[in-house]
Amino acid sequence: MIIENKTIKVEDFTEDNVLKILDKNILDKAIFFDLEHYLYKKPICVGVFGAGVYNKEKNEVNTTQYMIENREDSYQILHMAKKYFKEMKFKGKEYIVTFSGDNDFFVINYLFEKHFIEYNFEENFKLVDLQTEYEKKYQKNIGLKNLEKLCNIERKGHVMSGMTLAKTFSKVMRDNKYINRMPDEKKKRILNYNQQDVINLFHIMKDWEKIKLKDIVKMEEKREVEKLLRNENKRNLQEGSYKNQGNSFNAVFNN
């Protein structure tokens, strides 16, 4: 198991911009939570568990990550996740903040049940989903990367797709020695990607009221143009395919 504990200093910020839940600033009462996982028809494993908590006195976020290295770790990581949440509950944390968290909770709850690990998140924490909060306020759907842009958050390093991560953890589950052949740089990229998912949940929440309606309108307009261009390119490709098929038919017929 790869275990990473890091401390990230936070620049001073004003509470006026913080997303309030029932008129309360919950930053120092929350766990910021994100999983990287592997599904094939049903959840197979948690590849990386990532979580962070904000220390108001020191103005820093403390992140914790567990990454599996073999099939045995895929069971151990679930017990470590449960232990983490129990410890955070004991320390006074009351909320879990996610983005599109239904997916993560579906995976971890499924695997908890499969391996007879008893834990009920909703009984222990209030769940806050930033995607849902955005939809409630603006009546629009949004992805994490676009929400980060609205909050002027710039990601560092490579962006990794869910497909890439799934393939990686599929290999880890099938071959216990695969992790030894995986370049250290790739391991760091995976952990860094997950850590940014976690820390950016905090930054989005603290800068929530900085989101400007004009920037949302501009983003929506850009997305609409990109959609039109994609549809146009698709039509052109289809028409080109039909045209080529017609030319081939004519050539055969004329011969």
- The CATH class label of the largest domain is Alpha Beta
Number of domains: 2
Whole-number mean pLDDT: 89
- What separation lies between the terminal Cα atoms? 67 Å
- Give a count of the beta strands, DSSP E runs of length 2 or more: 8
| Tally of contiguous helical segments | 9
CATH architecture of the largest domain: 2-Layer Sandwich
Identify the overall geometry. globular
The CATH superfamily title of the largest domain: Ribonuclease H-like superfamily/Ribonuclease H
| Helix/sheet category | alpha/beta
Summarize the amount of helix as a percent range: 40-55%
The largest β sheet comes out as: 6 strands, mixed
CATH third-level topology of the largest domain:
Nucleotidyltransferase, domain 5
Q: What share of the residues does DSSP label as strand, in percent?
A: 15-25%
Please provide the ordered H/E string of secondary-structure elements. Answer: EEEEEEHEHHEHHHHHH
Please tell me about this protein's structure.
53% of the residues lie in helices and 21% in strands. The protein is an alpha/beta fold and 255 residues long. Strands 1-6-5-4-7-8 form a six-stranded mixed β-sheet, with helices on both faces. The protein has a two-stranded antiparallel sheet with strand order 2-3. Strand 5 (42-55) and strand 6 (60-67) form a beta hairpin. It starts with a strand and ends with a helix.
